[in-house]
Amino acid sequence: MICGEPQYLDEHRDVVLNPKLIIEVLSPSTELFDRSQKFWRYRTHTETLTDYVVVSQRMPLIEHYHRQSSGEWVLSSVSDIEGSLPPPSIGCTLKLTDVYDRVSFPAEPEEAEEPKIKLAERPS
Question: What is the topology classification, in CATH, of domain 21-99?
Answer without folding.
Answer: tt1808, chain A (3.90.1570)
